[in-house]
Specification:
Number of strands: 16
Shape: elongated
Radius of gyration: 34 Å
CATH architecture of the domain at 217-461: 3-Layer(aba) Sandwich
CATH superfamily of the domain at 217-461: P-loop containing nucleotide triphosphate hydrolases
CATH topology of the domain at 217-461: Rossmann fold
Oligomer: single chain
Structural class: alpha/beta
Largest sheet: 8 strands, mixed
Strand order of the largest sheet: 9-10-6-11-5-12-13-16
Distance between the termini: 65 Å
């Protein structure tokens, strides 16, 4: 027997046993002899198997034939016994059909419950919640699941197939799982975009705008000059927060010197449809970068207006979902991108990254002071490459001087969040797309970065130092 689920087809109430028996009794008690049953007409449709409708029709024919024989002179007791026998047979078959239907309905519900754990890898929500679960069919021990894809040739189709199969296969009684993938129609895609952007059902999605819930902590990672390891710090902070269970995104706003895709291992092309861009994901972190749209070796030669538009699209057109933290890796200095970002997310927090030497400290302080003038909120300083420990003798040496990060923090009146040592493994992990906090979590650099991430979490979730809205009483 085959059963299925289609969200667009309302369930039909089955005929009850009592109703069927009442109909049969009415036939058996008919005072006038019924006419003999007519010969069945040839059915032009192909046979569909011995289903419930055919079995019921066979019983009705037998009942009519019994009544006809009674009218033709058969003994009343024989006729009544034959009718009772047919009624009991009908009752047994109906009960068996209802039991089978109930069993299949239970199996269908178990499969649907299992599919609740299957998330769309780009959207991050259950496939049923976002309208991607089209149909479930159960035939014997084979379950066929039809899933709608946002676009034809979705790059994550294999992952969806694997996730659906892994979720359904353990369900009791399932021996085989088949996954059918088909692209959404234009109307279905528009409905999905509207749902993700908060439009009421049946209405067109609103135009994209930059809007984040108050629960999302927006954190700009800045530096006064290049070469201090700002992007490495940003990537590792994001991975620490994600590994601890937070929903994290990282926006590579360093349009000219993008490096986040390589460092976090999120290389590829994002999927876009209906003016919405789906970020890539790696190590549990959602990622978007100019490096996803141009070859890595291609220079980006843009000026103010184009840079402004790019940042606006990264913030407004990308579907970030329900994030706890969005880290924005800014380009070095205090140029157009930093100013644009500050205008789009006023009140965001800023972490300044520097190295210990005097030259880096001075420009880091300028970046922190720029934040104060553009309505950003400095929350701390991270000193990178603070010291180097010789692997042979264990001697600790300050290759770039010492104390620069602490002096910058004092100047900006913020805490020094961490002193990250210079270790080759940090650079190696960045080149391989395997951040050191995941690759070697026990290293001194990983421990320092985890301390910084913990301090950032506490600072961004606290109300201290944040502007509060005034409400009339």
């Amino acid at each position: 027997m085959t059963t299925g689920f289609d969200a667009n087809v309302p369930a039909r109430k089955p005929r009850t046993i009592s109703r069927v028996l009442t109909e049969l009794t009415a036939v058996s008690d008919n005072s006038e002899p019924p006419p003999p049953p007519a010969a069945p007409k040839p059915n032009p449709r192909p046979a569909r198997g011995n289903n419930g409708k055919e079995r019921a029709a066979s019983l009705r024919e037998r009942l009519a034939m019994t009544a006809h024989r009674s009218a033709a002179g058969a003994e009343p007791q024989q006729t009544a016994a034959a009718v009772r026998e047919l009624i009991e047979a009908m009752r047994a078959r109906l009960e068996s059909a209802i039991e089978e239907r109930t069993r299949l309905a239970g199996e269908l519900e178990e499969v649907r419950a299992a599919l609740r754990n299957v998330m769309d890898p780009e959207i991050g929500k259950p496939i049923e919640d976002v309208g991607m679960l089209k149909d479930i069919r159960i035939e014997d021990a084979t379950v066929t699941v039809t899933v709608l894809l946002t676009i034809e040739g979705c790059p994550l189709r294999d992952r969806i197939t694997t996730d659906v199969t892994a979720a359904v296969q353990p369900v009791a009684g399932v021996e085989r799982v088949e996954v059918s993938l088909t692209p959404m129609s234009d109307e279905q895609r528009q409905a999905l975009v509207g749902q993700l952007r908060g439009a009421p059902a049946g209405q067109a999605p609103p135009p994209s705008k930059i809007s984040f819930p108050p629960e999302t902590a927006l954190i700009a990672i800045a530096s006064g000059k290049g070469g201090v390891g700002k992007s490495s710090v940003a990537v590792n902070l994001a991975c620490v927060l994600a590994a601890e269970g937070a929903n994290v995104g990282i926006l590579d706003a360093d349009v000219w010197g993008f490096s986040v895709p390589r460092m976090i291992g999120a290389e590829g092309k994002p999927v876009g449809f209906d003016n919405m861009i789906m970020p890539l994901e790696s190590h549990g972190v959602k990622v978007i970068s100019m490096g996803h749209f141009v070859p890595e070796e291609t220079p980006v030669i843009w000026r103010g207006p184009m840079l402004h538009k790019a940042i606006e699209q990264f913030l407004g057109d990308v579907y970030w979902g329900d994030l706890d933290f969005l880290l924005c890796d800014l380009p070095p200095g205090t140029g157009d991108v930093s100013i644009s970002l500050a205008s789009f997310i006023p009140g965001a927090s800023m972490v300044v990254v520097t190295t210990p030497q005097e030259a880096a400290r001075k420009v880091a302080e300028r970046a922190g002071k720029m934040a104060e003038r553009t309505n950003l909120r400095p929350i701390g300083v991270i000193e990178n490459m603070s010291y180097y420990v010789c692997p042979h003798c264990g001697e600790r040496e300050s290759l770039f001087g010492e104390g620069g990060g602490r002096l910058a923090a004092e100047t900006l009146a913020v805490p020094l969040l961490a002193e990250v040592p210079l270790v080759p493994a940090l650079r190696e992990g960045a080149d391989a797309g395997a951040p050191i906090v995941l690759r070697d979590p026990s290293s001194p650099a990983s421990e320092a970065l985890r301390e910084a991430a913990d301090a950032i979490r506490k600072a961004t979730k606290s109300k201290i130092g944040k502007p509060l809205s005034l409400m009339a009483r």
